[in-house]
Structure formats: C-alpha cells, structure tokens
Amino acid sequence: MSKRDDASILPANPPHGEPKLGYLPVADIPHKPRVTDTDPKAARRAERQVAGMFILSMLLVVLFVVAFVTIDVTTVIYVPVLGEVGASNLALGLTFGGAVFLIGAGAIQWAKKLMPDVEVVQERHNMTSPKDDTEEAAATYERGKEESGFARYPIIRRTLIGALALFPIPLIVMLRDLWQTPAGANPVEILSSTSWRDGERIVPDIGHNTGENVPGIRPEEIPVGGLVSALPMSIKDLKDDVVANMRDRGKSAIILVRMDPEEIRSQQGEGWDYQGILAYSKICTHVGCPIALYEHRTHHLLCPCHQSTFDLADSGDVIFGPAARRMPQLPIRVDGEGYLVAASDFEEPVGPSFWERG
To answer: Where residue 44 falls among pLDDT bands split at 50, 70, 90?
Structure first.
C-alpha cells in the first residue's frame, strides 16, 4: 500500500508570512490499476513467481547444509577476477546469501504485484493520542492483515512459512564450527597448552610466512614503549596445514612490550621479563579477541571488542571491563645467540574461560 508524499497533505495555503515552498493542494488523483488488479491470469502468475522464490530459498538452505558437510575447508578453486578462493566459503556464501535474498525479493514482489495499491491521505493529528487509540490500532492491524492477502493466497502463505522455517537451519549448522575436536582429543587439554616450550624462539608475526628467513627478535630491536606481535618459530612448520596453522596462531599469539624495569610493579612469576621486556598472550580473556592497543605511558592494554583493560606493569591484571581473568604472561629469556626465547609454556590457560575450564 503506497502513500502520497507528506507535501501532498500539507495545507493549500501556508500560514501568513511563510513561503509556499512544499505546500501543495491535495489532488484527487484517480487510481490507476495494475495488470494484476484487472487480469486474474497475471495475478496467478505473480503468485507463482512469489511462491517460486520462497521455494528456491528453501532449496538453497538445503544446498547450504550439503556444502557445509561435503566440501573440505582446505579446498581452493580459481574464480576469475577474485583469484583463488576457498570453495567452502564461496559455496556457503552463495547459498545462504541467495536464500536470504530470495525471501526478501519474494516479499517485495508480493507487495508490488498483489497487495492493494491505492492512494491514501494520512491526515495530521495532535501528538496527544485519543482515548480509543488502542481500539483503532487493533482495527487497523486487522484491516492490514486482511488487505495483505495472507489468508487469501494459501500458496504464498505456505511457501513463506516453509522458507522462514528453514531459514534458521544454516545458523544452527554453523554452530558446529565453534569446535571441531580431532578423534580422541580432549578440548580442555588442547586449549590448556600452546606451542611455547623452553627454548622456543620468538619471531615476529608477519603473516602467512611467519618464521621464514627470520632468525628471531633481539632485545635491542624493541625500544622502550614499543610493542611487537609475535609467534613461536615452529609456526612455520604448519604453513601448509591451514587448520593447524590457524589453531596454533589462535592459542600461541603473544605481544612483546618493553618498559623501564623500575616501572614493573609485579609479574606472574619472578624474573619472567628480560631487561624490561614482557611477553603476554594476545588473546583477550573475555571472549578471545586479539589485542594490540597498548598505551606505553600507562602500560594499559585495551581490548577493542568490549573495552576490557589490563595493566601490563602489574601482572596483566584487569582494571576495567567485563574480563574476569588477567592476561597470561609468558616467561622469556635469551638464548646463546642473543635472541628472545620462551622459558616455558604459559602457566595459566590462554583465551576466554569456558564451563569445562577451572
């Protein structure tokens, strides 16, 4: 149902002294019927078009589930212009996006072709609601329900209900991606340890080729107030295994910050720094967002997701925000060649807490 612009319901003559711009008389515009208003065959054709869109939406949801289960996440295909893309991501995006689009397109086609198309003038009224406002609103709702044809077009009604009923299925299926446990593995054990070991060299996080041709990080390369995102050198051994590489990055990512040793008030272990260089997990303990917003004058680390703030000069303790646990600290030292290395793994679990983790 369409309405005239606000200008068409303004008074023909504006108040004294005001310009006439925007004030137009209410014209008695004759209604021009659409083809579907006069031709029953056109109306039935439009009905089938709308129902067809809803049916296609349901089919795309089914294809989404099939693609999710059958396409390996490491499969890559070549697409002109885009280059190499993940086959799984492409299939899931096209099917789910198409399902959402067809529901919206069907609803628009329904409104344009089959719902009443008359000009209605909405008179202005005082801001104070009348006493019978509730009854009037209920009557308007009933009239709108009747005019929409929801009860008059059973095929559209049923296919729409079917499309909307299947629509949440991809959202439920995707919950499986929240955790994929290898056969026989314990989630608690996997998430309670990282790749850091005594003597594991620290290398800068420079993308997919982290560790390639980079011998490590020397203490003198980090100035006071500086921050470096880093990973264990062993990450380079997993560059061809996408899943293991991403899982290792998610657990083992750290930040190195340097401050005046006299400004360090406390640490999670005695002597865990090296000449004022501290290593902390990069994964927020609230919901797991990566953090690299560091204020070197206050030594505060801010999570960009929900503003949890940690004091790196005081054991990484929480000073603001929803996080309930401090940022785990990684003990570090230098090896015989003068490069920074880990002294052990984290002694506290990294990342957000969950119900199975104490």
So the answer is: very high
DSSP string over 151-212: TT-HHHHHHHHHHHHHTTHHHHHGGGGG--PPTT--HHHHHT--S--TTPBEEE--STTTTT
Supply 61's token pair.
């949801």
Least confident of 88-97, 187-196, 259-268, 303-312: 187-196
CA 223 to chain centre: 35
- Residue 327: its pLDDT value, please? 94
Q: Which helix (H) or strand (E) holds 280?
A: strand 277-281
pLDDT tens column, 294-304 = 998 999 999 99
DSSP states along 17-67: TS--TT------PPP---HHHH-HHHHHHHHHHHHHHHHHHHHHHHHHHHH
Specify the CATH number for 187-342; select among 2.102.10.10, 3.40.50.300, 2.40.420.20, 3.30.70.940. 2.102.10.10
Q: Report pTM.
A: 0.52
Q: How many residues in total does the chain contain?
A: 358
Place of tokens 């272990």: 269
Listed by start position, the domains of the chain span 2-178, 187-342
**Per-position DSSP letters for 281-318, written without gaps between them:** ESB-TTT--B--EEETTTTEEE-TTT--EEETTBTTEE
